[in-house]
Amino acid sequence: MPHPQPGDPLAVLDTPAMLIDLDLMEANIARLMERLRGSAVRVRPHLKTVKSPDLARLLLAAGAVGGCVAKVSEAEVMVQAGIDNLLITTEIVGQPKLARLVALVKCAPQIKVVVDSVAGAQALNQAMREAQQHIDVLLDLNVGQNRCGVLPGEEALRLAHSLRELSHIHLRGLQGYEGHLQHMHDPEERAQRCRQAMHLLTETAAQLRTAGFPIEIITTGGTGTAEICASCEGVTEVQPGSFVFMDTDYRHALGPAYANALTILSTVISRPTSTRAVVDAGLKSLSTDSGMPELKDVPGVIYRPGGDEHGIVTWKDGALSATTSLAVGERVELIPSHIDTTVNLHDVY
User: In sequence order, what DSSP letters do the residues of 114-182 get, joined into one string?
Assistant: First the structure.
């Protein structure tokens, strides 16, 4: 079967299929860039959301200074496509990953990585020394998410002093991601707690500079906090990613700031009862870690997964809607609740 071409109707697509509304996506990108245009903060979007060099180029053309990725494998895809100004935001540990990182740095010396331990930094330094390569690093700081990251203040200073002894890695800045605040629904509490996290980040940067370390980069923020972070003195760049497509979880937190530009096209394959329909998009098509997806433009119904390949749609309170038939063969679009983990389930936009 030939691949669909631009201009073909949606009807030629098999389902489930991942769709992007280009007008909405491009408007989302333009809106974020415009909101941050008045600040001195650069935008380094997190490409773990889009996972596509083509979409990364759109972001760069809109004004992004580079990109973030979460994994070495994501960096490899981008570098192969000529996109090399990258920050890998997760600690790189283990010989297989270090070997792949070394190969990347040889052709993309702009790549930066994060470290949060002496052991991790020493292994990274050894790999670079053996390959006769150098790499810039950022200290990964725990600003409240309690995932990775060295503690602010004295612990970060001790780690920085340890890095001075390592000849092939060079400290250039700090990363402090407040992921625990991204989806907080109360905007005032989100802003207050984000500023507290930014104080930890920028105060540690000031302490490191006083100690003689060249802290040039302070990178932070996500879709839920990017504008707050950009208003905090000392922050140099932000890392939003989900804003490109959005999902229901971020929409519940941010309201209509950005549009839901990505959906999963699905077909009704069964209508066993008058109040239950079954679609061909289940757990292998839509992630549910942030809640249930929503049917686009189909009011009064609820989706739940019915297995790997099935989704079950029921009517709220069992009340059928005169405008919602969901007959066998009808197509529907579902808005993901978590965009990153849904995109990860598909091969093609």
Answer: EE-SHHHHHHHHHHHHHTT--EEEEEEB-SSS-SS-BPTTHHHHHHHHHHTT-TTEEEEEEEE--GGGT
pLDDT at 96: 98
Q: Looking at per-residue confidence, does 6 or 301 come out higher?
A: 301
**Residue 3 pLDDT > 90, yes or no?**
no
Give the 3-state DSSP-derived string for 81-124, with helices as H, strands as E and coil as C: CCCCCEEECCCCCCHHHHHHHHHHHHHCCCCEEEECCHHHHHHH
| Cβ count within 10 A of residue 27 | 14
What's the rounded mean pLDDT across residues 179-203?
96
Closest to 64 in 3D by CA, of 237, 247, 303: 237
* Cα separation, 303 vs 321, whole angstroms: 15
Q: How far apart are CA 246 and CA 336, in angstroms?
A: 8
